[in-house]
Amino acid sequence: MAIDMEQVRQTRREADCLVTQAEVEAAIGRLAADLTNRYRDRNPLVYVVMNGGVIFAGQLLPKLDFPLEVAYLHATRYGMATQGTLLDWRVRPTQKLAGREVLVLDDILDEGHTLAAIMEYLREEGAADVRSAVLVHKRHDRKASPGMRADFSGVDVADRFLFGYGMDYKGYWRNAPGIFAVKGL
User: Fold this and answer.
1) Predicted structure pTM score
2) Residue range 112-160, pLDDT digits in tens
């Protein structure tokens, strides 16, 4: 199915900006300070979840003033599975996890099923501690578990169809300079 590029462009023009670029940058600065306080005297392995986490990680990592290792993983859920580690691994974790402190970076915590399954997998593989940091926490009551939140969050936003700073609209606009919601969604 061909993508209608004019419709993609129009979606960006008509979108509601929920969080400006300056507000996103400030949130990333606060996250960097919190993460530095947590990990400055540790040896964390930081996993970036592809594809959404790449822009957030690219902005955050240079602000972390402590030694760390960076790697990436890519996983999606099988079909509509909502529990456990039923993941379709595109790229599995490659570093040895036994005894390591692991921080998982992702763009958004929406329902959280995939992030929860990734974190469970990392624990099962022997990580001593697994934490998560997301740029966006979406406010709604459909979380994988009641009250679920990442360990570190940048901004809380309304339950709308979002794009920008790693989140996409039909594969596009991950690069949008702010966090936007599709008009009417």
Assistant:
1) 0.92
2) 999 999 999 999 999 999 999 999 999 999 999 999 999 999 999 999 9
With tokens 């030694």, the residue in question is 67
110-129 residues labelled b (16+ CB within 10 A) or e (exposed): bbbbbbbbbbebbeebebee
Residue 175: is the preceding peptide bond cis (ω within 30°)?
no
Helix ranges restricted to H, 40-85: 53-60
Ramachandran region, residue 166 (left: φ > 0; alpha: ψ -120 to 50; beta: rest):
left
Classify domain 21-157 at the CATH class level: alpha beta
Helix (H, G, I), strand (E, B) or coil at 62: helix
pLDDT tens for 30-40 read 999 999 999 99
Among 92, 16, 18, 105, CA closest to 59:
105
Buried-exposed string 82-100: b where 16+ CB fall within 10 A, e elsewhere: eeebebeeeeebeeebeeb
Give 175-184 pLDDT, tens digit per residue. Answer: 999 999 999 9
Which pLDDT belongs to residue 104? 98
Q: d(Cα 108, Cα 137) in Å, to the nearest integer? A: 6
Please tell me the distance from the alpha carbon of residue 37 to that of residue 108, in angstroms, as a whole number: 22
Q: Decide: helix, strand or coil at residue 78.
A: coil
Cα(167)–Cα(165) distance, integer angstroms: 6
